[in-house]
Design a protein that fits this description.
CATH superfamily: BFD-like [2Fe-2S]-binding domain
Protein name: Bacterioferritin-associated ferredoxin
Family: Belongs to the Bfd family.
Order of helices and strands: EEHHH
CATH topology: Arc Repressor Mutant, subunit A
Largest sheet: 2 strands, antiparallel
GO molecular function, one term: 2 iron, 2 sulfur cluster binding
Helix content: 40-55%
Radius of gyration: 14 Å
Keywords: 2Fe-2S, Electron transport, Iron, Iron-sulfur, Metal-binding, Transport
CATH class: Mainly Alpha
Cofactor: [2Fe-2S] cluster
Number of strands: 2
């Protein structure tokens, strides 16, 4: 789904940027040129970023086997 109509950025691109190491919204915003024209996409883009980052953290292995 298109999140930023001005720059043709989709939710998949935001999720992919997080999966590729985007750790801050500013970094992802700069990489994808999000919210740089009219700014109306900023709120939903940040929500998708936060959701993607949280999913990534939830999927990380937070334990290890003790030998």
């Amino acid at each position: 789904m298109y999140i930023c109509l001005c720059k043709s950025v989709t939710d998949s691109q935001i999720r992919e940027a997080v999966a590729n190491g985007g750790k801050s919204f500013g970094q992802v915003r700069k990489e994808l040129n999000l919210a740089s024209q009219c700014g109306k996409c900023g709120i939903i883009a940040r929500e998708i970023f936060n959701e993607s980052l949280q999913n990534q953290v939830d999927n990380e292995q937070l334990f290890y086997a003790v030998s």
